Amino acid sequence: MKYRNLLSAFLFIFLGISLSVQAEYRVFVLKISRKPATAQTLPPVVPLDPTSNSNPNSDSIADSNSATNQASDFRLVESTLDPEQYRYFYPVKADEEVTYIDTWRCYGRTDGFKPLCSNPKGQNPVTPQPAT
After folding, report:
1. Of 102, 97, 90, the residue nearest 132 (C-alpha)
2. Which among 62, 74, 127, 132 could disulfide-bond with 33, CB atoms 3.0 to 4.6 Å apart, if both were Cys?
């Protein structure tokens, strides 16, 4: 009888604690962008005529530099993975970098592919992630 009362008290306390506990997770806004081109990645400049001072490749180098500096050369992604985890879990190209932009805490569960909670600050719109 003594053990029965002790067991029922333990179950009552355990159930009370388990009902009051909630799951929580963190949402990250990640910026995935191309790394800036370095001098090693540009094609070598070789003039066609050694006596000429003109550079036939100068236009192509300027075009490739301006193409990599465009503001639309990135995407924003909401994820429950931090930048390091995201790189290992999702395919990210070698010339792309993953940068942390914002984070917030959400309460509840994400099972069953439920959508992530929205940013309480409401300041970072996220572009839809392309289907792969």
Report:
1. 90
2. 74
The whole-number average pLDDT for the span 77-84 is 93
Instruction: Indicate the residue type of 25.
Output: Y
Q: What whole-number distance in Å separates Cα of residue 108 and Cα of residue 23?
A: 5
CA distance readout (Å), 112 to 27, 109, 115, 126: 17, 9, 9, 22
H or E stretch covering 79: strand 74-79
Q: If 0-12 CB within 10 Å is exposed, 13-18 middle and 19+ buried, where does residue 28 land? A: buried
pLDDT single digits (tens) 22-73: 788 999 999 999 988 765 555 555 555 555 554 444 444 444 444 444 556 8
Residue 100 near residue 83, CB atoms below 8 Å: yes
Q: What is the mean pLDDT of the chain?
A: 74
Task: Give Cβ neighbours of residue 34 (< 8 Å, ≥ 6 apart).
Answer: 68, 73, 74, 95, 96, 97
Closest C-alpha among 78, 75, 77, 76 to residue 106: 78
- Assigned token pair, 11: 């179950």
